[in-house]
Amino acid sequence: MLHDRTLRDHPFSKGNHGITGRITTWLGHAADLKGLLANIADMIVLGEMAGCDMSLEEGMAIGLIVPDPWGRL
């Protein structure tokens, strides 16, 4: 997301097909990614509840972030 300047600079919350060639938005991408990260967290919890060692998955998930349009993490 941070490397797509056209998406970052133009359609923040409302799609603009004329500029980007797509109807996607920064906020839409961020919401989708946050949903996927929540699903991963849920799967880790389910694995732990089933008695599985999820330490590797937990360690990998810690590094997954959703950037914001101002470049902060």
Could you list some keywords that capture this structure?
73 residues; mainly alpha
Short description:
This protein is mainly alpha-helical.
Structure description:
- By secondary structure, this protein is an all-alpha fold.
- 56% of the residues lie in helices and 0% in strands.
- The protein is built from 4 helices and no strands.
- The longest helix has 24 residues.
- The radius of gyration is 16 Å and the shape is elongated.
What proportion of the residues form beta strands (DSSP E)? Answer: under 5%
Our Rg estimate from Cα atoms comes to 16 Å
Largest sheet: none
Q: Could you name the ranges where pLDDT drops below 50 across 5 or more consecutive residues? A: none
State the separation between the terminal residues, measured CA to CA: 12 Å
The helix-strand sequence is HHHH
Judged by helices, strands and strand pairing, the structural class is mainly alpha
Looking at the structure, what is the overall shape? elongated
- Continuous helix count: 4
Mean pLDDT: 79
**Helix coverage percent of residues?**
55-70%
Number of strands: 0
